[in-house]
Design brief:
The chain is α+β, with helices and mostly antiparallel strands. Helix content is 33%, strand content 25%. It is built from 5 helices and 6 strands.
């Protein structure tokens, strides 16, 4: 494991009006390290992750993810990370392959790269027979597998898993 820090949070705080969702959290994560937030519902775990992913601007403090400031370079952060939310960000009315094509496009991948990655990932997941199935018809476990696959579809440097 290297000492290179891929996530740095310093006094990261998020307020919603007078409610403080995260209160001056500080930590760092090195390349290759697995890091987790533990806490009760409402403890601020998802809020912290949303800030680190560039999806929510911190009220105070600073964070750097993959070398980019989450407040001023959120779009760059998003290009270098994968994120799997607890509610799966799959599109039920699209097929498995259409979801892969959509996410590949969102991540800025070219058509050929998307096609190659889709073919390989469907084999790796054992879902080649479900290529043209609507996501809503898949069992929950397969949806979870697909959601994770889409979080890593563009081979990001960092992956955030929310539950």
């Amino acid at each position: 494991m290297t000492d290179e820090k891929v996530i740095i949070a310093e006094n990261l705080t998020k307020r919603f009006g007078s409610f403080v969702a995260t209160d001056h959290i500080s930590f760092s994560v090195r390349r290759g390290e697995i890091f987790g937030f533990l806490g009760a519902n409402g403890a601020g775990k998802t809020t912290a992750m949303r800030m680190l992913c560039g999806l929510s601007r911190p009220s105070e403090g600073r964070a750097v993810v993959a070398g980019f400031d989450v407040a001023s370079q959120a779009e760059q952060v998003k290009r270098h990370i994968g994120y799997m939310s607890q509610k799966f960000s799959l599109y039920d009315d699209l097929t498995v392959a259409e979801n892969m094509r959509l996410f590949g496009g969102i991540y800025g991948m070219g058509r050929r790269q998307i096609a190659e990655r889709t073919a390989g990932m469907l084999v790796d997941l054992g879902l080649e027979g479900e290529r043209n199935s609507l996501v809503k018809s898949l069992p929950l476990g397969w949806k979870q597998k697909l959601a994770f696959a889409l979080a890593i579809f563009h081979e990001p440097e960092i992956v955030f898993l929310d539950e």
